[in-house]
Amino acid sequence: MSATKRVALVTGGMGGLGEAICIKLAMLGHTVVSTYSPGNAKAQEWQAGMRVQGYDIKAYPCDVTDWNSCVACVAKVAAEVGPVDVLVNNAGITRDMTFKKMDRVNWDAVIHTNLDSCFNMTKQVADGMVDRNWGRIINISSVNGQKGAFGQTNYSAAKAGMHGFTKALSLEVARKGVTVNTISPGYIGTQMVMAIPKEVLDSKIIPQIPMGRLGKPEEVAGLVAYLSSEEAAFVTGANIAINGGQHMQ
Ligand code: NDP
User: Which atom belonging to ligand 1 lies closest to the Cα atom of 92?
Assistant: First the structure.
């Protein structure tokens, strides 16, 4: 892939998928910034660990559900690192329960963290990308936004909404060298998925995956790397599935 160095910002870059994405983009020579939740006590430790591994990944506090926090975070990144060329909207949470049990708090938390975050963060960087005639916005959605999932009305709605956002925004910035794409991973072996009881994984989830295994964070990171590259300049408004054959549209 091409060698132009860019500034890449990955929300939730300290999570299972986020870390793999940060490392992959750093390996390609990009200047990588991760956000972390303001209350994340392990942030400094994570950043130090990255340095030990040889990746100089900077980390900034940001609550992606909070507009003012996003404004402050991206302004600081722009001042200290540079304008953001690649934004990966990766931060996300689940709060699974049947619709019957779901209350407003768990609905709002998931919509705010997965979907409102895309507005809050993309607003900070989109105009600059358009002005510079180059940008990549990559939204990490989910197979469950494509097909729905039992116990995930909140998450499926938020993740499907992310792709609606992708499609509409991609039209508005297409002539300005800015691409906007969605990645919809299936089950990837991160903490979020490993928190599912093993018997449920073995009896209900793995059997749904024709490849018979969970995906690897590095496999999703490779796709992010491609979509961030010069070679992906003609890919926009796409929703790329990476799910081991679990769901085909
Ligand atoms: P993790 O739980 O490991 O990581 C989620 C990240 O989101 C954490 O780094 C967390 O930061 C961050 N985050 C959560 N809330 C906020 C907030 N309010 N402000 C800022 N950051 C926040 O999950 P994964 O790595 O597994 O998932 C990453 C993305 O991929 C998510 O959007 C998820 O929905 C999606 N996905 C994951 C799949 C999987 O199988 N793992 C499958 C399909 C999609 P902190 O720790 O600092 O709070």
Answer: 32
Active site residues: 155
User: Residues 115-164: pLDDT tens digits?
Assistant: 999 999 999 999 999 999 999 999 999 999 999 999 999 999 999 999 99
Mean pLDDT of 53-67: 96
Could you tell me the distance, in angstroms and rounded to a whole number, from the CA of residue 178 to the centre of ligand 1? 24
Q: Which of 138, 146, 89 is nearest to 114 (CA)?
A: 89
Fold (topology level) of 7-242: Rossmann fold (3.40.50)
CA nearest to 177, candidates 235, 125, 233, 225: 233
* Per-domain boundaries in the chain: 7-242
Q: How far is the CA of 12 from the centre of ligand 1 (A)?
A: 6
C-alpha to C-alpha distances, 169 to 90, 166, 209, nearest whole angstrom: 17, 5, 32
Instruction: Indicate which atom in ligand 1 lies nearest the CA of residue 188.
Output: 40
pTM of the full structure: 0.98
CA distance 103 to 91: 22
Which residue's CA is the closest to the ligand 1 atom numbered 6? Answer: 12
Are 102 and 145 spatial neighbours (Cβ–Cβ below 8 Å)?
no
For 200-225, b where at least 16 C-beta lie within 10 A, e where not — what string? ebeeeeeeebeeeebbebeebbbbbb
